[in-house]
Amino acid sequence: MSEWWDYGLADFLLFSPRVYYRLFETMNSVWWIAVLAAFVAGLVAAGLAMRHGHRGNRVILVLLSLIWGWAGYGFLWQYYQPINWAVAYILPGFVIEAVLLAVFAARPLPLRFGWRGDLTSCVGAGLLVVAFVIYPFVGLIEGRDLIQAELFGSAADPTALGTLGFVLMARGTWRWLLLPVPLIWCVFASATLWVMDQQVAYVMFVAVWLTIFSGWLDLKNGVTTRRLTEAELATPASLSD
What we know:
- The protein has about 240 residues and is an all-alpha fold.
- It has one domain.
- About 60% of the residues lie in helices and about 0% in strands.
- The chain is built from nine helices and two strands, in the order H-H-H-H-E-H-H-E-H-H-H.
- A two-stranded antiparallel ribbon has the order 1-2.
- The protein is globular, with a radius of gyration of 18 Å.
């Protein structure tokens, strides 16, 4: 009998790329209204997060909380979990992320989103562009149909990527609590895509590395440890870190 160390990642994958991408085709066809609404909600949140004036902080957090709840139920639970046994162990993380986002929205001093002009903001903005514009439609290059697009707000991969970007665009105490779940998912998705021989796996891996590096840079520069005040939230012009 073979020992456990004789197995590779491919031995635990019980589906083919064709089956995997059919999940998005089915979801986009059946739940197209919810998928479109979640994508638009994400665009609204991204637009608010990129603004220079730091407005709509609670709106961003509430929208992201709803998006993570929907992605967990709509995609993971309804479609992905039946074909991938490992998803059941990660699914509670989506619930935790949705709850954390709601808790941050309810705090007296919520996270403050906005363009700061530093490297972390550039990385965050870049991840948002990838999540909303590039990742959903990279399948077209590989010959897949548009109906199989992985859209932010419903598909787990671009949702996790975009959330990394949102957190990097934010300031506020304890914001890093929002990173573990999307980071874990990105690592999990990268491994899955790599086993399926999908080149997009490298996008997830690079996103994880850039997020960790940017987090370390913010910690070094004191951006993470500085507490926001009511005056800073009320005065958009106060942008210094």
